[in-house]
């Protein structure tokens, strides 16, 4: 009996890891994306493991590449409050694993953006972060946005970065690993830290 179990596990593992199965799974994921996203560009690919909330508010350009655990959330309703979310991802964007992007307002990611793993980008918080919010537990507070998040073209975002509401990152900027970005920065900036600050400005 143990031999049979081992054989079945080995057989299933071989099937699930075969290039044919992976190609078929990729085709299914992409067919779903074309039918459900507001836009899903040519040669873009969803990873094997993903979570997408309200894809009708999400536009993806050409040539998206992503590793596993991609999480895109567009919240149009939370505890009776209505929102008009929009997530726009440009062309030639690369995500590594565990990228989480959530919007109730607007998040724009430009062309040729490169992201490492474990990155969180949000345009909202639970509540306004005031004393009045203490009347409710965090999960019961209404979502609140301080404004859109805009990441311009050719930005490189390092491992473990958190980008908070109302932030614009100028083109060609680099964000160091584990930074928390709570304000905007101009183009060609190298930024790092908690909270992030300019380390250097790149010269063309």
Note down, in words, how this protein is organized.
It is built from 2 helices and 23 strands. The protein is of the alpha/beta class and about 200 residues long. The strands form 5 sheets. It has a 7-stranded mixed beta sheet, with no helix packed on it. The chain has a 6-stranded parallel beta sheet with strand order 1-3-8-11-16-19, covered by helices on one side. Strand 22 (about 190) and strand 23 (about 195-200) form a beta hairpin. The longest helix is centred in the N-terminal third of the chain and has 18 residues, at about 20-35. The chain is globular.
Identify the notable features of this structure and list them briefly.
single chain, 204 residues, alpha/beta, seven-stranded mixed sheet, six-stranded parallel sheet, 33% strand
Q: Main beta sheet, described? A: 7 strands, mixed
Q: Output the number of helix runs.
A: 2
Please list the strands of the largest sheet in the order they lie side by side: 4-9-12-17-20-22-23
The average pLDDT score comes to: 90
Helix amount = 10-25%
Report the sheet-strand fraction.
Answer: 25-35%
Q: Quick one: how many beta strands?
A: 23
* Broad structural category: alpha/beta
N-to-C span: 68 Å
Low-confidence stretches: none
> Over all CA atoms, what is the radius of gyration?
19 Å
The helix-strand sequence is: HHEEEEEEEEEEEEEEEEEEEEEEE
